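Worked example 3 (structure in, sequence out).
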């Protein structure tokens, strides 16, 4: 059984380890191991924690700890969702969807939700579209990477 709860400061090192594991596939896909999720430090994530809500997914049946996470913050009526991640061996079980639903609930007063992902992240784009997000902009970062910006209006 999966439980999604607010992460605490003591969870940050484990979330950072999870982040590197989850985003390794993206780094390989873009042949770029300098993407922000791969090079973020523990000090940076602690600073980020002061300004954002971090959620974690834990499998009550597993003793291995955090299997997923997402973070977000609200500014001027927009909830910015960042770094949705699930352990590679736990993907395709609905955990990402559950994390997204919970982060949207936590920011239920927001007028809209925004996020971004890489253009080669077809599974992420598919998930976000399934959850009601649509692409509103693309930005070239390097010859090998474009960022896809997505939005969902809150009903």
């Amino acid at each position: 059984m999966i439980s999604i709860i607010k992460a605490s400061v003591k969870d940050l090192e484990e979330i950072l380890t999870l982040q590197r594991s989850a985003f390794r596939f993206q780094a390989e896909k873009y042949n770029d191991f300098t993407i922000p999720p791969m090079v973020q430090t523990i000090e940076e994530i602690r600073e980020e924690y002061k300004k954002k809500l971090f959620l974690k997914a834990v499998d009550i049946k597993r003793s291995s700890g955090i299997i997923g996470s997402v973070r977000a913050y609200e500014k001027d009526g927009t909830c910015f969702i960042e770094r949705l991640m699930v352990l590679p061996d736990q993907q395709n079980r609905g955990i990402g969807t559950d994390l997204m639903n919970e982060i949207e609930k936590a920011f239920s007063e927001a007028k809209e939700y925004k996020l971004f992902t890489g253009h080669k992240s077809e599974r992420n784009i598919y998930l976000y579209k399934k959850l009601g997000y649509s692409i509103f902009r693309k930005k070239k970062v390097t010859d090998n990477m474009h960022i896809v910006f997505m939005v969902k209006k809150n009903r």
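Notes: The chain has a mean pLDDT of 94. Residues 81 and 115 are 5 Å apart (CA to CA).
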